[in-house]
Amino acid sequence: MSSAALAQVDEIVVTATKRSESAQDIPIAVQALGEKSLDELDVDVFSDYLQQLPGVTAGGSGPGQGTIYVRGVASSTPTLTVAGVAGLAPNVALYLDEQPVTQVGRNLDVYAVDLERVEVLSGPQGTLFGSSSQAGTIRLITNKPNLDGFSATLSGGVSFTEGGEMSNKVEGVVNIPATDRLAFRGVIYSDQRGGYIDNVQGTRDASESGRFRPAGTVRRNGVVVDSSQNGFQAGADLSGVNFIEANNSSLVEENFNDTDYLGFRLGALYEVNDDWRVYVNHSRQRIESDGVFFYDPELPDPDQLSIQRYSNDELEDSYGSTSWTVEGRLGALEALYTGAYLDRKSQQTIDYTDYLFVGQYLPYYICDGSVSYPGASDPSGNCQAPNLFVNSLTNTTVFTQELRFNTPKDKRVYATIGGYYSDQKIEERNDFTYPGSMFAESFTPGVFGFAPNFPLPGALTTDPGPAPDGVIFRNDITRTDEQIALFGEVTVDVVPELISVTGGVRWYDISVDLEGSANSSFGNFGQTEDQQVFGANLTTLYNGSSSVVIGGETVDLPDQATTDGFIFKGNLTFTPTDNLLFYVTYSEGFRSPLLNRPAGAGGIVPGMVDTDELTNYEAGWKMSLFENTLQINGNAFIMDIDRLQTTIFDPNIVNLFFSDNAANAQVKGIEGDVIWAPYQVEGLTVAGAFSVLDTEIKEILTATTAIAPVGSDLAHAPTFQGNLRVRYEWNVGDDMTAHVMPQVTYSGSSWSDIVAINRAKQDAYMLMNVSAGIAKDNWRLDLFADNLTNKRADLNNFFGYDRNRITINRPRTYGMRVTVDFN
């Protein structure tokens, strides 16, 4: 390599404005990781590149179950069993090339192999990218087939996790030009990730139910249970009750949270002529995962990453995606039409035993005798083992289309205009299984029946047959989200090459519908068919009518959650030189509305949760200095959030999760990144980035008392995040190069939720990684050590069931990777 090449900061071309432009030339806060950086950092899944992106956080409980947050615009991360059809729409859009793959409750966990780049667009991107880009947009851009010639790459690696299992992976990429206008590209990968969390032996019985919890109990997050939240039989004499223990001895296993990623991607590019080209892509991926990715910090050995689970936790998450893009020119116009169809299926078994700790009615389901009846002061009888679990099936289909046009940018006035359509359908069935239910045919040990076992006649169901034995509750619901939109941005060069002004607008029309049933194996006798089958409005399950009383007034319940309107963007850009850019931006973002199943509960729960809206005021700078050897970018912003949506569990109101427009909030922040390739030191590159956030709840809107008080921080919003990496390359002899790259990542403390009783502090952490390697001709060898100091990072705390469950990073891991290029 020449010193000139080594001393330049690489240019990354992005499509954040729906045009191909250098990231340094657009007035948008963009964090971009190019193909070279992705390869050097060995990025495979979202948790890998999350470390590289300050200001981006994630909540969730494992592969395929994550929710992404940008700039601290977060309220809560609900559990899987309430997330899907009843969950909030994400407020960060995720794209795979031109295809939006954002999904309610389960963002697509795309394996990041053969990517050209990752783009993170911080702040509202609603005018160009729609409703779920309220706080930002993340785009995964794949490498396309190349007509220039044959190439192939084969890469394999192995790693060892301290206290855990071995992991291994193999990735292959091949590019084949069939003619001078037709090329194909294929990708295949298999990544087997060993576990590092132990399922340890334990017992549990129904005496720990929230039903018997006395007032004044201090929850594990320090919140005191007041008199309205204590168990309604607190203090009852339980000496006459025979509590049968759940025992997980048969499930005890070390390192039980292993995960396998397996998939492929095939793409074809056809250049019809010099002006038009067609690109078609098909990808398939399957994730198989066992166990859980969180641990219990209160088990006896605090140094052991362990949990007690009483049923098998299993996940199979697979998707197939086909996308197509036609782009070319119509005279002076650049035209692009793109469409995509995604079909995803997730099957999961989830241990539900933790529900015991808040389930005040649990003894009613699994106990006999007088203990099964609320209010008994001297209860007696048998309580079966509370080894509960949920079988969850989710089928998701997404069909999207977009048509847009760009006018020539070499004119003083240029524009991007287009239209967008999407149709997302989620079919979700959750079977809550209580093997020892009092409604079983027999309490004989080992023999669990189920009665009555019947489907609701005429109900919309994904499974018309009888429920499996032991299923006491079934949610079988279909959600559809349909959106149409027209959008445009117009830029005027007021003073050519010096001052420009951009205005953007998006008109949208969105409808969200729920159909189906939420039933139990008991309590349906005597109901009318209308009460059992409630079509678009699930609230009739609980109310038996199409209206409810909220705040003392009778309110009609909507059949659909709908919204339409306009959002706007304005931008002023000042470019005094080719290497300096300054901008100020006003932008808006929003999120879709949704329906509440337990509408009217407690006279508080609304039938429809309104959109929440975000207004962003931002000033930024981009500087390429000293002949492009130093790049300094940054921005400062204030974001006002109106009617922030959140998911709430408040037993004072209803023993179900519901959603509401909880609060108004504000986020203030500064972000920046620096890349330095000093020409004085050939082969040295220094890169760093940071995010500083100040988040605050400004006003409580919901009638519940569950929300953290005014002045509290939002969730998943560390005050400071930053990273720094240094890469040094040098020649070894005449035909070999070597490198070493240390890296440090820091995240300040944060809160897991804005719901006070579920809110837990997530500790600050610092992670250190280092890699080194050699390369010769067409092969490379890399050695690495991740989490060198073996630090535990609190990635997510879930407190919904009164016990802290901390999703953790992988412990210290050593490994190697070999890559061979065939050209």
Gist of the model:
The protein has 823 residues and is mainly beta. The protein is built from 8 helices and 46 strands.
Verbal overview:
The structure is a single chain. With 823 residues, the protein is mainly beta. The chain has a single domain (3-205, 244-352, 388-527, 548-822), classed as TonB-dependent receptor, beta-barrel domain (Maltoporin, Chain A). Helix content is 4%, strand content 51%. It is built from eight helices and 46 strands. It has a 22-stranded antiparallel beta barrel. Strands 3-8-9-6-7 form a five-stranded mixed β-sheet. Strands 19-45-44 form a three-stranded antiparallel β-sheet, with no helix packed on it. The protein is globular and about 85 Å long. The protein starts with a helix and ends with a strand. Residues 1-6, 440-460 and 523-545 have low confidence and may be disordered. It is a multi-pass membrane protein. InterPro entries: Beta-barrel_TonB (IPR000531), Beta-barrel_TonB_sf (IPR036942), Plug_dom (IPR012910), TonB-dep_rcpt-like (IPR039426). It comes from Hyphococcus lacteus.
